[in-house]
Amino acid sequence: MNNISEILDGVKTVGIGGHVRPDGDCVGSCMALYLYIKKYWPEITVDLYMEQPRAVFSYIERIDEVKTEADQEKTYDLFITCDVSALDRLAVAEEYFHTAGKTVCIDHHISNKGFAMVNHVRGEIGSASEVLYTLMDPDKIDRSIAEAIYTGMIHDTGVFQYSSTSPDTMRIAGELMKTGFNFSKIIDESFYQKTYIQNHIMGRVLAESILLQEGKIIVGYIKKKEMDFYCITGRDLDGIVSQLRLTAGTQVAIFLYETDTLYFKVSLRSNGEVDVSKVAQFFGGGGHVRAAGCELQGTLHDVINNVTEQIEYQQKTENRS
Ligand code: AMP
Ligand code: MN
Ligand code: MN
Prior knowledge:
By secondary structure, the chain is α/β, with parallel strands linked by helices. It is built from 12 helices and 11 strands.
């Protein structure tokens, strides 16, 4: 596929879907595609399905139109997923995906095996939002579409910090900026800003983190009991694993939080020496070389042991190759 217009030929209804626990790239890419189709194909009915986006993204135009439930019997001519690495990661609208006449996956996860009829997966690109940009006509990208794409790009590149940032990323960001949105406000308020309680939790996790392998691995965790005490959910914990990774001397940062008694969401970040997508895939998860995730069951101690064992296996395999 070279252009979004190719898949819209003869289509009357489109569904768009993002992944569970939507991050900035998921929200940005889904919203950009939604706005683009709405504006330039007004004859097409388009619906966007996603779990409730965080309030920090409320500056994105029409975000209040997101459907958080698949509560009607419908069949779409076309269903498009954005930033979804595997079908079991698709949120809300899985039934619409299965019944759609045609399915398209726009993504950038190297672990993506291609679950749609048309799979446009560019593992070398830093964000699904950037992938989407390459499929749009640049002169059709207005300020509101640009804001959404820019949001996705900054979130998945850590504001152009991670190695997935390329000269193309910077060129595209420059093009988007020309539409005149308030980029520094978006960076501050959607990416860096934390609530008082989020800062408090981050401080606590960092203070209680443990070092393994003489500091090559750092582990941070939070148990359900503590999350309940502070009345927080997983979405309040964004940014903690990135901060752990910045500890000097670490190769891999592991962050775990308990979603249910003895069920843990595991986030992995690497400085590049260890491919954490392979570690996550071993446990049924996925992601990228430097950022990946999975879910595991067991005691905190067992989960940490199992994950570190796989990291050690990767360290040995990568040293050999
Ligand atoms: P996270 O640690 O949740 O921020 O995720 C890091 C990266 O790994 C993101 O690109 C996610 O899309 C991906 N990822 C996280 N959890 C999973 C999972 N269970 N299965 C597949 N990919 C995942
Ligand atoms: Mn994502
Ligand atoms: Mn992404």
